[in-house]
Amino acid sequence: MTPAASHLDDNALLELLILLRQHGYRHITVTPATHARVLAQRSNARSLADVFGWNMTFAPQVLPEEILAVMRRAGILLERDGLAKSLLRVSSLDDALLLHSGYPTEAEDAVFFGPDTYRFVRFMQDAVERHPLPPQARILDIGCGSGAGGLALARHGARPVLNDINPLALRLAAVNARAAGIAAEFLEGDGTADRGGEFDCIIANPPYLVDASERTYRHGGSRLGRELSVRIAESALRRLAPGGRLLLYTGVAIVDGVDGFLEEMRMLLDEAGCAWRYTEIDPDVFGEELEQAAYHDADRIAAVGLEAVRAQRCAVMG
Predict the structure, then answer these.
(1) Is 51 in the same domain as 159?
(2) How many Å apart are CA 308 and CA 237, to the nearest integer?
(3) Is residue 274, in this structure, part of any structural domain at all?
(4) How many CA within 13 A on the CB side of residue 50?
(5) For the chain, which terminus, N or C, has the lower number of CB atoms within 10 Å?
(6) In the chain, beta strands by DSSP E
(7) Domain identity same for 215 and 244
């Protein structure tokens, strides 16, 4: 169950993050498959991580009363038959705490956070350490979800514009930004639309799986889930300022050893005139998805990162 954005109290959510930090809360979020395996081995919630990380049902006395009271005011405490559950989770990323959807993430408007988030942020951090952003770079985070990507680059001096088609995602991203002390702009709607002006850097971690229910946070569209990633790249290359950079993390289905996303990107980058770098970050993610009929011909799903710089001629980045 995901709370409606209209039912949330932003100030109470901010207070919750502050309280959790004061209590030393930390939790690294895993894949849904791993999450299910861990829950199958546990029965009683005993800690803050059990409640806000593993998202277990808990007896109210497990939590300090001040945290319970804030959860009620925030609109995220589900109470039934003497037990309770948080409608949102909280994950650690470096020294930040980030709100996102509760487990399982089955709702159409679920706000994703997981291992892809960590890989995405590490990919961007590596990119900006090799080639630093200009001072006060204006960045656009397309499909920002919890805001993890844009907020991470804000720590490198960037000015983030956080975009999502999901109002709940922008609501949580705004609270996460306030908790981190980061000033951000917010842009609701289709992130591939040409609006918001030019950007020094555009980042994205789009959904890339083939989801039978076509849930927004998970479904990457046609061509084995790469349609949305290609569309985002096409849009980004139009909207970058001269010398601007695209940092795109996604997943691709490899069929008979061929990376179809890379093949499409080669043509797009040649036409646009870009310096670029392409990295296979993890050769095997979401292996359980290969059991789905849509992936009948796929060898594997790989996590990849594309860096592209708007330039006069095409070259491979060093």
Answers:
(1) no
(2) 8
(3) yes
(4) 16
(5) C
(6) 77-80, 83-86, 88-93, 96-101, 138-142, 159-164, 185-188, 199-204, 240-255, 258-259, 274-282, 298-310, 315-316
(7) yes
Nearest one of 223, 225, 271 to 250, comparing CA atoms: 225
The count of structural domains within the chain is 2
Q: What is the CATH number of the domain that holds 290?
A: 3.40.50.150
Q: Could you report the per-residue pLDDT of 31-69, keeping only the tens digit for each?
A: 999 999 999 999 889 999 999 999 999 999 999 999 999
In a domain, 13, yes or no: yes
Q: What pLDDT is recorded for position 53?
A: 99
- Average pLDDT in the chain: 94
Identify whether residues 233 and 90 lie together within a single domain. no
Q: What is the pLDDT of residue 317?
A: 54
Q: Which amino acid is at 212?
A: A
The strand pairing partners of 209, in sequence order, are 219
Q: Is the peptide bond before 64 cis (omega within 30 degrees of 0)?
A: no
Examine the domain organization and report whether 52 and 144 are in the same domain: no
Tell me the mean pLDDT in the region 207-222. Answer: 91
Question: Are 234 and 278 spatial neighbours (Cβ–Cβ below 8 Å)?
Answer: no
CA 236, 242, 244, 250 torsion: positive or negative?
A: positive
Q: What are phi and psi of 117, to 5 degrees?
A: -60, -45
Are 52 and 90 a contacting pair, CB within 8 Å?
A: yes
Cβ–Cβ under 8 Å, residues 240 and 202: yes
Residues 87-121: pLDDT tens digits? 999 999 999 999 999 999 989 899 999 999 999 99
Q: By residue range, what is the domain housing residue 170?
A: 115-316
Does the predicted TM-score (pTM) go above 0.90?
A: yes
Helical pair 10-22 and 167-180, crossing angle rounded to 10 deg: 50
